[in-house]
Amino acid sequence: MNASGSFVQRACSGVLLLFLTALPAQALQDVLVPMDANQSDHLKAYGAVYWALQRGEPVDWLLNYRGGSFLMAEFAGLRNELALRGITYDVISGTAVAQLVAEVESNRANTALVRLETPPRIAVYAPEQTLPWDDAVLLALEYAEVPYDMLYDDDVLGGRLSAYDWLHLHHEDFTGQYGKFYQYRNMPWYIEQQREAELAADRHGHHKVSHLKLDVAQTIKQYVSEGGFLFAMCSGTDTYDIALSALVTDIVPAEYDGDPVDPDARRKLDYSGTLAFQDFTPSFNAAEYEHSDIDTGPPPQQLQNPVLDYFTLFEFSAKWDPVPTMLTQNHVGTVAGFVGQTTAFRKHLIKPNVVILAEVPQREEVKYLHGSYGQGTFTFYGGHDPEDYQHYVGDPPTDLSLHQNSPGYRLILNNILFPAARKKKQKT
Amino acid sequence: MCTTHKFGSPLALSAPERVHTPMRSFLTCCICVITLTSSVSAQPQRTDRSRPISEEELLEGNAGSRYQLALGYLRGMQFDRAINVLRELRREYPDQKIFFNKLKESYTSAKRYPEAILLLDEEIARSEENQRLPLESERAQLLYLNGEEPAALDAWYAMVASGTESETAYRIAYSSMVGVRLLVQAIDLLKQGRQAIRNPNLFHAELAYLYSLTGQHEFAIREYLDLLTLNARQLNYVRGRLGRGMQQEGALEIAVRITQERVSSQPGFPQLRDLLAWLYEENGDFEQAYREITAMEQDTSGKAIYQFALRAAEGGAYTVAGSAFQAVLETHPEEEIFVQARLGIADMYRLQAERADASPEAYRKSLETYEQFLLDFPGHPGAPAVMAQIAALHQDVFQSRDAARMILQQLAAQYRNSSVGQQAQFDLGRLAIEEGELDQAAAIFMQLSTRIKGGELFARSRFEEARIQFYTGEFAGALSTLEGIRDQTDKETANDAIALRVLLLESPPPDSTNQALLQYAQARLLLRQQKANETVLATQNILAEWGNHPIADEARFLRAEALLMNGQSEEALSAFGEFRLIHPESPLRDRSLFHYAEILETTQGDTAGALQAYTDLLTRYPGSLLVDKVRERIRVLRTTSL
After folding, report:
1. A140/A82 same-domain check
2. Strand A69-73 relative to strand A59-63, pairing
3. What is the ipTM for the molecules in this complex?
4. Which residue on chain B is closest to A198 by alpha carbon?
5. Please, are residues B290 and B284 in contact by the beta-carbon 8 Å criterion?
6. Which of B145, B213, B623 comes nearest A195 by C-beta?
7. Single residue among A73, A101, A116 that ends a domain in this structure
8. How far is B356 from chain A, CA to nearest CA, in Å?
9. Looking at CA atoms only, how far is residue A56 from chain B in angstroms?
10. Tens-digit pLDDT profile for residues B122-181
11. Chain B residue closest to A258 (CA)?
């Protein structure tokens, strides 16, 4: 049943259709997981797709069709699992599937079918230490029930990255300034974080934490160049590039590393080594909760309201630009804004070869971007928590069961599936 | 401007001449302007060396302008230009610390460490013996920043040696090393300091801090304990510092173990026991904590044990809390704390009954203790609250309505305008419903809601009015009452109010008498009055007589609930099981299936059957409000099955 079901999705020719329609109806049933407004739990749907892939069942991602729906041949336990996870699904006949696939693959609509076959191996770069803020990436994966491994500096520098397709990271500071939380320097979590970082630096022969983090950033860059996929959020985006740019200089104020910033630091910054940003200026003020001018910061006071602050997703050609299309699959075109230590990226500081996936209208602010480096890709997403407009230190983590249809969180989860996609040659 | 004369200009006026007349002031100002102009044009200004120039004087003259210029360069991060100006100033005014300090800072900011070290060497050579320690320490720090760690360490060690191995020298070096995060090295230095000075009681606070920062909790706690042993008044300081470190994994267990050892070796030191008791409590071990508190034999007022008892009761350690309360009673029979402990015991029993097993025995103990308290202390300010607790136990736990009524009436009369009195009146209304005195209940609730006119109790009271109207068949009146409190209903009452409203709106009468709905309302009243048998009979009658009425599904569901209340779990299982087959369109079908699964899981112990039933519910009714609960149960059962 499974084999015939998946065969239907691959083949759309009239001959095959004739053959397949002759099969018993029961054998041709497929399950469509719609991802439009009818879906009861968009986030869990990603986990269910992952679950199916883990069982060797291929899934077709119908890009731009009903919010980026998923189609799979029915197999034992599928419907129960979807019901258990609270996911809306439709059972459709083989004939209807054939029509649906033909419709999606036709040139009349900006839709496309991408087959997902292998569950990607996901690593999340995060410390074991519990820090007093939530991590949207971990929350999304946990809620969607997508398995992942946690890695940190020792693992990255120990060469463990190569075992994973995806590396996700969130509120991280690759500049070695401990998130610029200097005002919290006497809090136990800060002391612990600093101690762990210093010990790790020492273990890897580095005199300073900033050197350790640069080493980690370079290792991640190497991983991307060899075909890895990097997804970063909040301060994990800009601090990554800032660290890479400061290869031969010291941009860390004495409050964090004991010695002052290199007086010639600005001149010595090297933007050729960064992934997404260029011509930015780091902040050398230890007390300023900002790493550089890449971050636009929160919107003007009068717009600091989830109802008024939003960003729009770009639409790409599903057939010609499948990766940006996959990354922007959503059931809405505009997504509620949210701020973070890094809220959005200043447009004029983004490298020209980077694809902008979402931006804030009327402002020079990019919320979501994507680019390639070597054989891999990177995706940066500004803001801290898509369902908590302004997350403060010490706030409780967001309960995603109250935000099952979160468009903002969907953008995070789009970033787990595309390594599972089988590459398809484009017509020339 | 007029103050420029202070720089020692020959035109400076002597004290007696500083008599202010308008003319003289004017002339003085003019002279000052001339003086300033001449001094600026004749750089560098030579000062009168006959007396030392103060820093303030210096900064108000030409040197001050140049210094400001240097600061401007520094703000613009033009370190080289700033350094040139500051070097000049340093050369001209070698005794002025301000120029020395700023030049040193500029060298450091520009990472020109060798020059900063030379500057320090020069300053050390110029300084008196007793002023050298901080400079030498700074020099060592600069050596470290210059990448010369061994030389830096040598310098620090040389410094403490040259400082006649004083405590101060070690503390200066320690502070300097911590500044560049040489934590482990600072530990070594301070340990060496203890030996060199031959005083093992030095540097406890510093070492404890360093050990804590480096995650060496065992050593940290030992240092804190030494500190406490030396000075018992440091208990709060030690607790405060330990509190931060205890959040790290394993730290609390280590602290407990080490403090236990110390208490064993120094049993007569009460502050150590106090600290150990606190650590036990932090670890949730109230029994051990109590043992330490009682061993201290210091608590003459009984307050410490009483406070401990309250914390233990709140933390769920009822046995030890009871012992602590008892100890207070035995040792302080004549004091106010005795009364508080009595009340604490009664509250503890109630907490235990509510949170733990809800056993009648625990409730009984609570009731007896409250009653005895009232007998012994009738005039205590807490007496009304105690009476309310007793009434609630009689009414809701033991169903002793007469006893409850007597107390509630007294409370309602005596404390009419207080919240205790109003709650008592409300409970009297509930009591009247349970006894079937609906008119009386309606009058009570009406009177109450007229009097309080808002708030949670008002909404609950109005809702009870609506319920009484429903029980007596005044359906239109009930709807109207519910409409009136639509936006005021508190969270607790909201769901019940909505359910009743929906029931009334969706039960169209097949005839003008509303007989079926009336009988159903009366059956609901029976169930509220805990008359499970009668409810079963009443609902069976409804089903027999009005089997096709829209209320039939509600009646069948009520019957199943009554069977369950009556302890007839087999019959209840069948009733809930058949419900969705008989009423496939009923909005109660998901709830009946949920109850069916719940009985299988809890009463019947049929995990597989329950799992199947829960899964059926998810598949059949994916939009049900119960799905979250159902998913939770499925996950639990799946884990259990494994």
Report:
1. no
2. antiparallel
3. 0.72
4. B181
5. no
6. B213
7. A116
8. 28
9. 23
10. 999 999 888 899 999 999 999 999 999 999 999 999 999 886 668 999 999 999 999 999
11. B180
